[in-house]
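Quick question, first post here. What does this chain look like in 3D?
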Amino acid sequence: MKNPSFDFRLSTFDSLAALPPVSEMMRAAGLEPKKQFGQNFLFDLNLTGKIARAVPNIENSTVVEVGPGPGGLTRALLLDGARKVIAIEKDKTTAPILEQIAAADGRLEIIFADALKFDFARLGKISICSNLPYNVGTELLIRWLHDMENISSMTLMFQREVAERIVAAPGTEHYGRLSVLTSLLADAKILFDVPNTAFVPRPKVQSAVVQIIPKNVGARTHPAKSLISPGPGGNAPIDKIEKLTAKLFGQRRKMIRGILPGALWEQFGLSGTERAEELTPEKFAEIAAANVI
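> Answer (accepted):
Ran it through. Tokens below.
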């Protein structure tokens, strides 16, 4: 229920500092996190500030935030000096709050759209910083990996398990498709953990902030055909590597010769008795370049 003593839509704030706390603005608007959008909001100013400060070269960057909700991290990005912030939000009920933030600081642009269908390339060179909705985080990351030539950096919050999958090394428990694709295209690391007690509502899982910095991977074409050079064997489009990782990790306990029996594994220095988790990202790129599938 709205708070009758405070209607922020009828108020004018001339600065971010003058805005009421995010939690108060939510109560005033009668808003609650929505399960269908995977919303878990951060109200802790220390945490939102820590995430914003982790964005490289923020003062010279256009920072894109997906799923800003009531704008807790949005405010932190602006306060930390982002040149511009573009907030992409699917839930239009947050409009009154986000519009108040935009009115208080002209560096914020709000786009109400589904991020999974949005053309990020039209924004030009961007940095991405988001507390990603749990239900779309992995899918968005893979989309962005296909379009790395337009991205300066990504500072993203995921479930801790997903974060571990992104940075995992070959032969480890969490090594898989995300590890391979990310490693070939970028340098990734976990910056810090975020406890579930920091969110409203409190999720059952822990979270972590991951930073992903694109590598200089050489020649690029259309995002869906971005090239990765594996060394001997030529170039491998990322979509081919993605298809190969899906095939091999889809049956990760089987030997690779049992999954792709027609491949000549010797040409890759392999016996075929290996399992997917034993192959390095570079080896996946080499195999994909040979068009084995």
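Residues 102 and 205 are 32 Å apart (CA to CA).
Confidence is low (pLDDT under 50) at residues 1-6, 217-225.
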